[in-house]
Amino acid sequence: MTQDPRSPRRALVCLPTYDEKENVGPITQAILEATPDVDVLVIDDNSPDGTGQLADAIAAREPRVKVLHRAGKEGLGKAYLAGFAWALARDYALVLEMDADFSHNPRYLPRMLELAREAELVLGSRNVKGGGTVNWGIGRKLLSRGGSFYARTLLGLRVRDLTGGFKCFRREVLEAIDLASVQCSGYAFQIELTYRAVKKGFRVAELPIIFEDRRVGHSKMSRRIVLEAIGKVWSIRRSGFPGTP
């Protein structure tokens, strides 16, 4: 289903959660305020801290908030794939993904939706002019930028921020890249989806964002996760994913 990018469209923000009880209320409220015409899907992986139940309470009083409960934690990529499938089944024209911990600020959503009129995939980018990070040590900056540079070089892409998880897809991108065959479920998931979109010939726009460390709780990112993702880039390259939409 391809829609005229200039026409009004329904948009859904996919918001995976695991032990985000302190964040789920404020982040959903911030998204709703920033984007009056956008719905939010909380995808909860059976959080032990009760995040899913709190999300249900929010959805009960706010019709623009939906909740998808999953049996357990299987990784960020699997949660997003479940959310994407949910969105496509309900005819959303734009599907967005972002973190629930405010590291992706909802203030960027309106501009991201505007750019989706010109590009099929919009990335919130830390590595273009005007983008950056807050409260990151030099080691984390080098790891992030180095990982993105490595993947960009190996895969032959111009995209500056391949590992970011703040994105807006037109539904035709998700339909074309065959979600059922996505290989990666961890940090490399973001690299794979962008690579597949580029290989299919879709236009990609990078929106400068400032990535902020989470406000509440502890980061789920680690050096091991990033290095594991870098290793999976070779698998992505070998797969190729040829073809055009």
Descriptive account of the structure:
The longest helix is centred in the middle third of the chain and has 18 residues. 40% of the residues lie in helices and 18% in strands. The two termini are 12 Å apart. The protein is of the alpha/beta class and 245 residues long. It is globular. The strands form two sheets. A seven-stranded mixed β-sheet has the order 3-2-1-4-7-5-8, sandwiched between helices. It has a two-stranded parallel sheet with strand order 6-9. Helix 1 runs parallel beside helix 2, helix 5 runs parallel beside helix 8 and helix 7 runs parallel beside helix 8. It is built from eight helices and nine strands. It has one domain: Alpha-Beta Complex (Spore Coat Polysaccharide Biosynthesis Protein SpsA, Chain A), CATH 3.90.550.
Distance between the termini: 12 Å
CATH class: Alpha Beta
Helix content percent band: 40-55%
Main β sheet profile = 7 strands, mixed
- Secondary structure class reads alpha/beta
Low-pLDDT stretches are 1-8
| H/E element sequence | EHEHEHEHEEHEHHEEH
> How large is the count of helical segments?
8
CATH structural architecture: Alpha-Beta Complex
Mean pLDDT: 88
The CATH topology name reads: Spore Coat Polysaccharide Biosynthesis Protein SpsA, Chain A
Please tell me the total number of domains. 1
Which range does the strand content fall in? 15-25%
User: Rg to the nearest angstrom?
Assistant: 17 Å
Spatial strand sequence of the major β-sheet: 3-2-1-4-7-5-8
CATH superfamily: Spore Coat Polysaccharide Biosynthesis Protein SpsA, Chain A
